[in-house]
Amino acid sequence: MSKLSKNQFNRFCSLLTILIGNDPKEDIKNKLLQDDYYNNDNLTDKGKNELRRLATIAGLISDKVFDDIRARKQLSQITEAKK
């Protein structure tokens, strides 16, 4: 299994935080916005691709897991909207 650099690890954790629906710290959020990984609502395509790339490098998560997380988040948003 390959290791991520400190910067890659921090970016991976930040992107994963957003993917599961939490907000990262303000300075991290601003960096992700500046680098076009995040658009104040969700990950951009560039952010999703970077998250996949980093997960692959680390040998942690497959595309199927990403699809499952995304589906659960969408279901949660639909459920919240109906309340």
What are the key terms here?
83 residues, mainly alpha, 69% helix
How would you portray this structure in words?
With 83 residues, the chain is mainly alpha-helical. The chain has one domain (6-82). It has helices at residues 6-19, 26-34, 45-58, 63-82. α1 (6-19) packs across α3. The chain is globular, with a radius of gyration of 13 Å. The termini are far apart.
Provide the fold topology.
Blueprint: H1 6-19, H2 26-34, H3 45-58, H4 63-82
Helix pairs in contact: 1-3
**Percent strand:** under 5%
- The best one-word shape is globular
Low-pLDDT stretches are none
| Helical segment count | 4
Helix-strand pattern: HHHH
Can you give the mean pLDDT? 84
Helix fraction?
Answer: 55-70%
Counting helices, strands and paired strands, the structural category is mainly alpha
Question: What is this entry, summarized?
Answer:
This protein has 83 residues and is mainly α. It has helices at residues 6-19, 26-34, 45-58, 63-82. The longest helix has 20 residues, at 63-82.
